[in-house]
Write a structure and sequence with these properties.
Pfam families: CH. By secondary structure, the chain is mostly helical. The protein is built from 8 helices and 2 strands; from the N terminus they run ααααααααββ. 61% of the residues lie in helices and 2% in strands. The protein has a two-stranded antiparallel sheet.
Length: 165
């Protein structure tokens, strides 16, 4: 039941983000990992609800991903009271952490207008599965493989033996 609730929560959150950023052609949010790494989605989400805070074109065209992320996190902290929970360098990667992105976007959802249409939810349901899930699963497998390579030959005291893949 908790898994179903989480899935529905993610679907509603993704629907809200897509609906909010629809008017930003540079932004295409299809997941809670890679869609956020360039910083455009965070800024578009803020700008769609608070266009008075900054010039979208200046942010979108003149900054690196780390600068855009830093901008969005600073705007959210200064004007919405959301603590800077993420480091831009941790998000501006090939595969940012899904749970961290979800946590931060949920924080935005709690303070910004939350109107989500059924059309937006249906649109998310119609996204190709590979756009939403397979890509995220591929990223998780890649992270696990990289972790396995890093811990190769490391001793685990609780198991009282060494593990070598």
């Amino acid at each position: 039941m908790a898994g179903l609730q989480q899935t529905n929560s993610e679907k509603i959150l993704l629907s809200w983000v897509r609906q909010s950023t629809r008017d930003y052609p540079q932004v295409s949010v299809t997941n809670f990992t890679t869609s956020w790494s360039d910083g455009l989605a965070f800024n578009a989400l803020l700008h769609s609800h608070r266009p008075d805070l900054f010039d979208w074109n200046a942010v979108a065209s003149q900054h690196s991903p780390v600068q855009r992320l830093d901008h969005a996190f600073n705007m959210a902290r200064q004007h919405l009271g959301i603590e800077k929970l993420l480091d831009p360098e941790d998000v501006a990667t090939a595969c940012p952490d899904k749970k961290s992105i979800l946590m931060y976007v949920t924080s935005l959802f709690q303070v910004l207008p939350q109107q989500v249409t059924m059309e937006a939810i249906r649109e998310v349901e119609m996204l190709p599965r590979h756009s939403r899930v397979a890509r995220e699963e591929h990223i998780q497998v890649h992270q696990q493989q990289r972790f396995s390579q890093e811990v190769s030959g490391v001793c685990f005291p609780t198991a009282l033996k060494c593990w070598v893949p």
